[in-house]
Amino acid sequence: MKYFSFFLFAVFFLASSASAQSNYSEGGISSGSGDCGGMKRPLPELPPRLYGDLPPGLKGALPESVSWDSKIAAPGNNPDGMTVTCFAEDSDNLYIGGDFLAFDTVSTYFIAHYNRKTGVWDAPDYGTGNEMLSLALHKGNLYAAGAFSNAGSSGLTVNYIAEWDGTAWQSLGGGMNAEVSSIAFVGDTLYAGGSFTEAGGNPASFLAYWDGQNWYEAAKGTSYPISALFATHDSLFVGGTFNYVGSETSNTGQLARGCAMLQNGTWTTFGTGYYSSTFA
Questions:
Q1: CA-CA distances (angstroms) from residue 179 to 66, 161, 195, 199?
Q2: Over the Cα atoms of the chain, what is R_g?
Q3: pTM score, two decimals?
């Protein structure tokens, strides 16, 4: 999901910063209401789990809200001058995707992997042939989507979406006919959104799902490309540049400018949506 994680972080950070700025003074914390006579107490000390100084942008945030990994945050651990667009993690692994050709001293194409047990960075079989836009981990396997048509050292044709099983890249039903911008799991079902009109050779209007064997259009798709997906345990939130869901036109589709929710094959809209595009 392109920039979605950064969006969530930004919302959380701004809320935390606003709270911190309203409650903290240079000499300590005050009630803000004046009911306690300007009572102050010292700022809490940085917790032991925090490594190094706070970055400038987080100076006003509560220190309890920030935690650093000393190995991941070590000097030099950064992409080769380009952009990180997505990440996925579990207890043992961290994957970072984007538009870069190296990470620290590791030569890799558009994706890097960090093994939390060994503390080692590596490249999943050389990565992919173009920019990575979205990553998702499910039951130990990594699913990747973006602007690439090939993956791995063998140049396997995957067409904008692929699965990494820890050893090799795998094609998912032949992929799509255009870029996949975002992926997300609802239960065991993988959803993909983007600018494609075919998935696995079948018609799919910008939104499709993978059942483990084949691709299918999801709920008749949307009227224009999708840029962001966010999943809960039973629902899929969809954002993009579309005006309608469930159809390409107002004749049979539901008005949903830029955002909608899909649950059990049924669309729910939020009023008339936004008079603009939705990105994340």
A1: 35, 9, 6, 11
A2: 22
A3: 0.73
Residue 272, helix vs strand vs coil: coil
**92-115, pLDDT tens digit by residue?**
999 999 999 888 778 889 999 999
Residue 8 has pLDDT above 50, yes or no: no
Alpha-carbon distance 237 to 268, whole Å? 9
Token reading at 37: 């006579």
Cα 197 from Cα 63, distance rounded (Å): 46
Q: Is 276 helix (H, G, I), strand (E, B) or coil?
A: coil
Helices marked H in the chain — which ranges? 4-23
Judge whether residue 42 has pLDDT over 50. no
Question: Quick count: other Cβ atoms within 10 Å of Cβ 166?
Answer: 10
Distance CA 28, CA 19 (A): 14
- Measured in degrees and rounded to the nearest 5, phi and psi for residue 222 equal -130, 170
- In the three-class reduction of DSSP (H, G, I as helix; E, B as strand; rest coil), residue 174 is classed as coil
Q: Are 146 and 132 in contact (CB under 8 A)?
A: yes
Strand 111-115 vs strand 93-99: parallel, antiparallel, or unpaired? antiparallel
Lowest mean pLDDT among 44-58, 67-81, 180-194: 44-58
Closest CA to 72 of 98, 51, 86: 51
d(CA 198, CA 144): 18
